[in-house]
Amino acid sequence: MSGFATPEVTEAPFLFPRTIFHVDMDAFFVSVEELTDPSLKGKAVVVGGQRDERGVVSAASYEARKFGVHSAMPLRTAAKLCPHAIFVNGHHERYREASEQVYQVLMSFSPQVEMASIDEAYLDMTGTERLHGPPLRAAHTLHEKMKAETRLNCSIGIGCSRLIAKVSSAKAKPNGVLWVAAGQEAKFLAPLDVGDIPGVGKVTEKNLHALGIRKVGDLTRFEDAYLEEHFGKWGLALAGKARGEDAGGWFDSAVGEDTSAKSISHEHTYNEDTADAQQIESTLMRLSEMVGRRLRENGFHARTLQLKLRYKDFSTITRAHSLPAPTQLDTEIFEQIRALFRRNWKPGVPVRLLGVHASSFEAQAMQGDLLEDNRRQRWEQALAAADRLRDKFGESSVSLASGLKGGFRERIQENPAGLPGQHPAQKPAKK
DNA sequence: TCTGGGGTCCTAGGACCC
DNA sequence: TCTGGGGTCCTAGGACCC
C-alpha cells in the first residue's frame, strides 16, 4: 500500500454532473399482500411459500425481520426463527400489476426511467429543477405521490451516479429519502462495509477481508493496479466504486438505455427428488412450452438452448446446444432439451431441479427450404392460437405433447375442467 | 439452516479460421 | 517439423442481484 490515489482523467462518459434517483419500494411483496389482506398489517409475514416447503423467503415484513428472517433464507429456517409468522404464497401477477402502477408514477416525474427490477428504478432527474425544484424537494413530492397513488411506501436515494443513488436508498430505508451532495461521495462511502457496494457479495467480501479490506474507505488506500492484480477487471471497477463512480459494466450505461431481454428461462424444483424418466421428460416438456410461449410473446427466436440439472447434493450442471437456425417452437426446443438430457443423465440418479434456458436471440433466418419454412409458419400460427386459448381457459387447458409418450396421458389428466385438451396443431406432427 | 426462480455479467478453455 | 498470434464462436461454470 502506498502512494496517492491517482486523479485519473479518463474519458468521463458524462460531461456534467447528473442527478440520479434510485427509488426502491419498501418490503414490496409484503406490502402488496397487505393491500389485498389488511389483516396482515403490522404482523410477521413471510412471502414465498408455506413453512414446511422446499423453497426460500422472497420477502419478509419488518416485523419478521426482527427475528432474523430475511430474503433468500430457506422457508423452514424462517419457520424456526419466527414460528408465529404468517406464511404466504407469492402472487407474481399482483406484483407485476403494482410494479406497473409504480412505473406510471415515476414516468410522470421524468421521461428517463429505468426499472432495474420489479420493485426498484433509476430516474435521471438531471435538468428537472425548473419543473420539480431542487432534488430533495422533488424526492419528497415523488414520495408522497407514490404513496397517494399506489398506497405503497418507497425509499429514495439521490446522488451523482447510479451507485451513490443505490447505496443511499438502502441507507434511507425504510420510507426515507437520502441525498448525497456533490463532492461528498467518498466521505459518504468510506465508513460503509465493503459488502454494501452493489456487486460485492459473500465471496468477494471474504476475499477482500482476507486482504484486510473491511470498509470502503480501506479500498481507497490501495493503488488501482494492486486491486486489478488481485481481482482483475472487477478490481479496477471496485477502485472506481469506492470513489462513487459508476465504474464498469451495466452501471456505466445511461439511464433508460436498451434493456431488452437477453435470455428467457424456466426452472422447476421437485418437492421430492425423482429418478422417474417419464416424469422428468414430462417436466422438461412443460418447461419447454413455457419458454416457447414467452419467446412468441416477445417475438424472439433463440439459437442457443440450455438444459440445467441439479442433483440431490445440490451439484448442478448445464449443457447447451446452439442451433443452425433460431426457433420459438415448443417442439424444437423440447427435442434439443430432451437430447441434452438423455446424453447427460445417468438413469437412476435422482434429480432435484430441471431448467430450460433460451438465449442468443436473433431475427428469424429463412432456411432456404420453402417447404420447411411453410411448415414452420403454420406451426407458429397454431402455437399462437394455443397461447390465446391458454389466456382464455387457463394454463392447463392446452398441451401440445406430441412426440412425448407417457407424459401425454399425464397432461390430459391434468385437465379436469374438460376444456379443449387437444389442439388441431397436434395433427401435422409427422415429419 | 438446507438451500426458489428469474435474470445479468464475467472468465476461461478449446475449436476454428486467417 | 516446429511454431506464431489474433479474432470469434461455443460451452461450462460461477458470482451476484431481486
Description:
This protein has 431 residues and is an alpha+beta fold. Among the domains are: 28-91, MutS, DNA mismatch repair protein, domain I (3-Layer(aba) Sandwich); 190-242, Orthogonal Bundle (DNA polymerase, domain 1); 263-403, Dna Ligase, domain 1 (2-Layer Sandwich), CATH 3.30.1490. The protein is built from 15 helices and 12 strands. The chain has helices spanning 28-36, 62-65, 75-81, 92-107, 129-132, 135-150, 162-172, 185-189, 202-210, 216-219, 224-242, 277-298, 330-344, 370-393, 407-413, and strands at residues 20-25, 45-47, 59-60, 86-88, 113-117, 120-124, 154-159, 177-179, 263-274, 301-311, 316-327, 351-362. It has a 5-stranded mixed sheet with strand order 5-6-1-7-8. The chain has a 4-stranded antiparallel sheet with strand order 9-12-10-11, covered by helices on one side. The chain has a 3-stranded mixed sheet with strand order 3-2-4. Strand 5 (113-117) and strand 6 (120-124) form a beta hairpin. The longest helix has 24 residues, at 370-393. The chain starts with 19 loop residues before the first strand and ends in an 18-residue tail after the last helix. The model is unreliable at 1-12 and 402-431 (pLDDT under 50). It binds a DNA duplex (18 and 18 nucleotides) through helix 3, helix 9, helix 11, strand 9 and strand 11.
